[in-house]
Write a sequence for this structure.
């Protein structure tokens, strides 16, 4: 028997594509599960576990640089620079002058931030706290503080507040859709790669070559679920030629030998037997008795292999048993194949109104 290392077999792209298509529901389910988990975690973190709501005051300042004295000094400032300057004592000392007692510098530092600046002369300033009144109070204090700061520091000639909005509650969970989309992509990708690993380790029989390449035993034909006439004719011809001159044929079903409860009658001896055959067909069931083994040695064995998942392991065990018993295997027949799968793979038409054969 050939070395049964099915994971070393070359990749059949068409087979892989068809098997992948048959599992598209799995990728979709994995993607939906990933989207639900991702969106759920996002909402849990940003809403349920985020603590009390926060309130934000947005303001905008016009910065006047002393270009006549210092030249292009604005080139030395950016959003990061102003974000740090807003938390320095040079600014906070003026801000604290306008704040009531009880508000500390640390509170002010934690609340202030500077957004992205599209124009170096326009600074967006945001105050965020868990109290709307506190946010507005600090924002108003910055109006006073930055006016003083703008006239006190070299390089600037002033800072005016152009816009000061009322406190607004910071919305939460606004990116749930993005989180769900990311989870959908990651979930589908994880499902695909998990299935890819399973595919590489799967020894199921979907095509004649799957069995022939592993064990060197010819597959005489395939029986589909809908009894494709073209494939059935091919099978009858192959059986007639292969079994010519045989008086008795022993038929062994791999599913029955493996103890599979749903051992299909679709591949039973009478159904794969050629119409004009004169041989005696005997179905041999596992475990074989001594007399059955002797008959198999004399007449040879025709294997019936179920199509699809798990069939490779069944076939491997049965071939190994027959090899140990020194019973010659004349060939194999695959039964229960999906018509759509084979039609897509081989490119033939089963409808009587269309002509054509295997591609």
């Amino acid at each position: 028997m050939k070395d049964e290392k099915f994971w070393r077999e070359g990749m059949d792209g068409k087979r892989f594509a068809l098997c992948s298509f048959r599992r598209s529901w799995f990728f979709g389910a994995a993607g939906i599960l990933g989207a639900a988990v991702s969106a759920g975690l996002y909402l849990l973190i940003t809403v349920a576990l985020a603590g009390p709501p926060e309130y934000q005051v947005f303001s905008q300042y016009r910065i006047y640089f002393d270009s006549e004295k210092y030249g292009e000094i604005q080139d030395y400032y950016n959003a990061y620079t102003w974000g740090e300057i807003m938390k320095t004592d040079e600014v906070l000392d003026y801000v604290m002058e306008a704040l009531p007692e009880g508000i500390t510098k640390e509170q002010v530092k934690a609340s202030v931030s500077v957004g992205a600046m599209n124009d170096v002369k326009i600074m967006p300033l945001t105050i965020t706290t868990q109290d709307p009144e506190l946010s507005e109070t600090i924002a108003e204090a910055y109006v006073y503080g930055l006016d003083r700061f703008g006239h006190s520091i070299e390089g600037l000639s002033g800072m005016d507040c152009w816009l000061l909005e009322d406190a607004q509650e910071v919305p939460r969970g606004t990116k749930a859709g993005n989180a769900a989309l990311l989870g959908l992509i990651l979930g589908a990708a994880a499902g695909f790669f998990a299935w890819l690993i399973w595919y590489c380790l799967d020894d199921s029989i979907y095509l004649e070559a799957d069995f022939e390449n592993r064990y060197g035993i010819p597959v005489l034909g395939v029986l589909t679920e809908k009894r494709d006439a073209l494939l059935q004719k091919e099978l009858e011809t192959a059986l007639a030629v292969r079994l010519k001159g045989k008086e008795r044929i022993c038929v062994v079903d791999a599913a029955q030998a493996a103890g599979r409860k749903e051992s299909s009658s679709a591949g039973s001896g009478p159904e794969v037997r050629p119409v004009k055959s004169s041989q005696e067909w005997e179905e041999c069931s596992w475990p074989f008795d001594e007399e059955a083994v002797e008959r198999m040695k004399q007449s040879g064995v025709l294997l019936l292999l179920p199509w699809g998942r798990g069939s490779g392991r069944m076939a491997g065990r049965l071939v190994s048993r027959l090899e140990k018993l020194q019973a010659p295997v004349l060939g194999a027949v695959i039964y229960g194949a999906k018509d759509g799968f084979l039609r897509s793979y081989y490119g033939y038409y089963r409808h009587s109104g269309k002509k054509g054969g295997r591609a």
About this structure: Residues 206 and 214 are 13 Å apart (CA to CA).
